[in-house]
């Protein structure tokens, strides 16, 4: 399950309102139809941190109901361990095939805090878990030593790593180094979409993908090429999408851009982010629309 | 209200359990008896980010009930604007004299996000507000331009700034620069306890104090000396407390240290932090106990 393309849909949340469940169900159904390998509900792109535990339980249920049998991985991160435990139980009750856990922080966390969190959560879990390393949102930096301690805990099945070095040889060396540290059963998945082709070329088993959640076709094209060993083709597809990666960098991450893109495609209402997050302004949206047309991402 | 010593008590939270309301009430009462100028309930030291909105509403009520007329400033930060609005209403209903708002983030926030948040919240507020600038927990960095935009919003009464430059002349220049930017009605309060004496010497009106919430006596001694213009004495008191500041730096902030100190003084149970945050280990607690004895902080 933790290989190939894992597509992370938005959870559309209009400003100060509640989840647009209908639009979310459609987004999930669309990914199942496209044939992604798994669906990552309530990831960072799915704004899990902004929802109540009740809202998250409902969203997890909707995801599983509309995934048409495609495995759903549900984000269970929260500031308190007891919230994570509750969310894990809710996700399992909803039928999640796996869970994704980031060490969300307010007070900076120590390695022992994070190990204790994962130890307690995995001891209470009956589905596999993805370790979610996203320093841009959690502000926690994993060391290789901590990866190694965590990877042997029960249920740990994959690590979602942040972007790799630009240089292909260095990227490959990094993935090979991780492989030596980790049990054979634990897969390594790349995140940071701009690094996806490079990551798959370097030996990553999975792409935990933001654009896959809104533009599954190009993400699948890139992934299938890489899986078939056609890495040049995968890298070319990534290069073709460079204007998108540039927009991600320009807007401090991918969320605001894919949210505006989903609205542009008519998949969600225009207001689809939880305040205080503001979407792109009119000029930025117009520019994004041009990029989407030029890249032929409209179908 | 936003001058002098604002003391921030812990909210004791045992691991995966609920707030120890009795211990919290005692902590607040102790501050009122000591004669602090205001009480900052549910600040970062009060672990606001780890509590549900219901728990926060209860804690705000308990704080006001046990503050014996000392003004209580309640932290209202949350990831979603709608949660902040609800928390602000709950704080006002509880009798808060003011509120404290930090731009808590998961996805990185833009200046426009933060301005929009403060604009919406202050438009719905009938008590004064402190802008809470704490990049160590929010990972948001205020610019002077944003300070200036925010300071003219209705209800804005104070800014809680992070530590100042070490050099006294530079610190003074910084505070004087802020003064020129801000309306006369907006006070400037220093946070980062190690910088308190320097901050008050540099012209800050208030000290938003972590140790004041657990050790009100030395915090009051320092503040009263500074308020009387006896800055040498205030700086000496701060130097005397250097072993505490060293422990704060060593433990990635003040929270774990004051939590262990409060337990050592018998003010809370030993387990008083929300998991995944772990307290100091036995050896660290023993060292802290020695420091507390040597500094005569036991009464």
CATH topology of chain A: TIM Barrel
- Unreliable segments of 5+ consecutive residues of chain A: none
- Multimerization status: homodimer
Number of helices of chain A: 13
Beta-strand share of residues of chain A: 5-15%
Write the element-wise H/E pattern of chain A from the N-terminal end onward.
Answer: EHEHEHEHEHHEHEHEHHHHH
Biggest interface, CB < 8 A: A-B, 35 and 34 residues
CATH superfamily of chain A: Aldolase class I
Account of the 3D structure:
The structure is a homodimer of 299-residue chains. The first copy, chain A, is of the alpha/beta class and 299 residues long. The first copy, chain A, has a single domain, classed as TIM Barrel (Alpha-Beta Barrel), CATH 3.20.20. The first copy, chain A, has 13 helices and eight strands. Chain A has an eight-stranded parallel beta barrel, surrounded by six helices. The radius of gyration of chain A is 18 Å and the shape is globular. The mean pLDDT of chain A is 97. The A-B interface holds A 15-16, 44, 47, 49-50, 79-82, 85, 103-104, 106-110, 112-114, 116-117, 120, 136-137, 139, 252-253, 255, 274-278 and B 15-16, 44, 49-50, 79-82, 85, 103-104, 106-110, 112-114, 116-117, 120, 136-137, 139, 252-253, 255, 274-278. Chains A, B: Keywords: Lyase. Chains A, B: It comes from Streptomyces venetus.
